[in-house]
Amino acid sequence: MIASMSHHRRRVALIVNPSSASGVRAHVGTRASNSLKRLGYQVTQVRERTVSGLRGAVRELERTGGVQAMILVGGDGLLHRVINCEPTIPLGVIPTGSGNDFARSLSIPVRSFRQALARIDRSWDAPRCVDLLEVRHAAGVTRVAGTLSLGYDALVNRVANAIRLPLGPLKYQIGLIAALFRYRPLDIRARCDGDEYTGRKLLCSVALIPTIGGGIRIVPDARNTEGCFRFLSVDAVSPLRLARLLPTVATGRHTQLSEVSIRPGTHARIELTRGAPAFGYGDGEYVGTTPFEVRVLPRALRVLA
Predict the structure, then answer these.
(1) Shortest CA distance to 92 belongs to which of 16, 203, 178, 195?
(2) pLDDT (average), residues 133-143
(3) In this structure, are strands 195-207 and 292-303 parallel, antiparallel, or unpaired?
(4) Considering only 85-94, 162-171, 201-210, which range has the smallest mean pLDDT?
(5) What is the pLDDT of residues 216-250, one digit of tens each?
(6) Average pLDDT over residues 157-175
(7) Lowest mean pLDDT among 206-210, 247-251, 260-264
(8) What is the pLDDT of residue 164?
(9) How distant, in Å, are the alpha carbons of 115, 192, 204 from that of 217?
(10) Rounded distance, CA 116 to CA 154, Å?
(11) What is the Cα–Cα distance from 193 to 36, expressed in whole angstroms?
(12) Where are the beta strands (DSSP E) in the chain?
């Protein structure tokens, strides 16, 4: 339960994504606002549908110093947009997205907004510091809180994002199957802290958290509190072999396969040796195209969790 005491000096901005999870949980923002006010919080609501509008709102909140924390009502996509505004005050997360993998990584309840709000309330005086990724690409620099995906898992993400029905994590399960018939191996040259990975690859990922797509355990031992990421490289396989391997991802057993390589790192570069540039996704959002230069930003974000 949320603590019953009032917090009259706590000032928060409630940033709501009304389109999160195809809009089916848009009411959570109103309920969260009412709950915070009952606790005595001073609440400023922000509802911005455009990236530029959100960036302007976040920067104004930072400039004026009128709030002490930002509470996000949305999923990994909203978090992605906010961290790319480079906030300096702590963030709280009330997960209402389709995947909510960042929230899962910190054991933030994803099925109860009241429990998520209680976590924020209890951790107000002791935010957790977590790592971020800085991804440099042709279009600029993007911060990622979870996983940068390239190859098959990026295609799964693109397919899932095109599904507008409110299916939650099921969208990514559908994407896993649909991508089987569309993926093409990539000729990749990657370096991670001096080690080189070259050849035809199914995918390359740089992960700070264990899961993508609403709980798919792609890098089970990834942690965003260690000052390093996990670099994942998977050799190209036939569609039939891939179909047989997919069930092992749910349990993390794929990490024992000969085609799979996972190692910790702090700096990576990923490029293609031939073919058109490949697209990458981070936190479920389109990032840009290869080449990617990735480095870890230790303890770059404070989270009320």
Answers:
(1) 16
(2) 97
(3) unpaired
(4) 162-171
(5) 999 999 999 999 999 999 999 998 888 888 888 87
(6) 90
(7) 247-251
(8) 86
(9) 24, 21, 15
(10) 29
(11) 45
(12) 11-16, 42-47, 69-74, 91-95, 128-137, 140-144, 147-151, 186-192, 195-207, 229-235, 260-265, 267-272, 279-282, 285-289, 292-303
Count CB-CB contacts under 10 A for residue 166.
13
CA distances from 194 to 150, 229, 268 (A): 20, 15, 9
Tokens encoding 74: 């949305």
CA dihedral 160, 166, 169, 173 (to 10 degrees): -50
The owner of tokens 């609501």 is: 45
- Evaluate whether 296 touches 115 at the Cβ level (below 8 Å): no
**Which amino acid appears at position 304 of this protein?**
L
Reading the block at residue 151, the tokens are: 């190859």
Q: What is residue 3's predicted lDDT score, i.e. its pLDDT?
A: 46
**Rounded distance, CA 27 to CA 18, Å?**
8
Taking each helix axis as running N to C, give the angle between helix 170-178 and helix 152-161, from 0 to 180 degrees, rounded to the nearest 10: 120
Kindly state the tokens that stand for 100: 């909510």
- The string of pLDDT tens digits covering residues 61-110 is 888 888 999 999 999 999 999 999 999 999 999 999 989 999 999 999 99
Long-range contacts of 242-246 (CB under 8 A, 24+ apart): 242/152, 242/180, 242/183, 242/202, 243/180, 246/176
The amino acid occupying position 73 is V
User: How many residues in total does the chain contain?
Assistant: 305
